[in-house]
TrEMBL record:
GO terms for molecular function: DNA-binding transcription repressor activity; transcription cis-regulatory region binding. Residues 77-122 form the SpoVT-AbrB domain. It comes from the Bacteria. One of its GO terms (cellular component) is protein-DNA complex. Residues 135-144 have a biased composition (Acidic residues). Keywords: DNA-binding. SUPFAM superfamilies: AbrB/MazE/MraZ-like. It comes from Aerosakkonema funiforme FACHB-1375. InterPro entries: AbrB-like (IPR027360), SpoVT-AbrB_dom (IPR007159), SpoVT-AbrB_sf (IPR037914). This is AbrB family transcriptional regulator. It holds the Pfam family AbrB-like. Residues 124-144 are annotated as: Disordered.
Amino acid sequence: MTETATAPLTGKALLQKVKELSHLPRRETAKRCGYYSVSKNNQARVNLTDFYDALLAARGIPLDPEGAKDGRGREATYRVSVHKNGQIVIGSTYTESMGLKPGDEFEIKLGYKHIHLIQVDADKNGSRNGKVAAEEGEEGEEEE
C-alpha cells in the first residue's frame, strides 16, 4: 500500500516552513512539509487535506471543535415547537434520557414562563422522576 515518507511538520515549524516556501505551488509546499505518501510504484501522493487541516490547527483555528463524531444523525437541541395541529411532540432522545416508557402519563401544570410535567403513576410508587419532581417541589413552595 502507501507509506508516509517523513513525519509531517505541525505547529510553529509548519507555519515557518510555509512562509519560507511561499513562492512554490501549494502541492510542492505540502510535499516539502511532509504531507505526502509513497505508493508501491514509488509515486508521491500529496495529501492536501491533512496539510490544510494542520495549517488551520497551527494557526489556532479549530476545524472540528466538538471532537470526532460518526457524522450520522442529529444532535439534541432540547427545544420543542408547537405543530400546526396544536400538539407538542417530545422526541425519543429526550424520553430515553429521562427513562420514560411508552404509556407513562403526566399531569401538566402551567407556571409563569414554564410548564411542569408531573408523572401520574409516580405517586403510587413513592418515587418521582428526577428533575421534574425537584421542580414540582419548588413550584409548590413558591405559589403557597
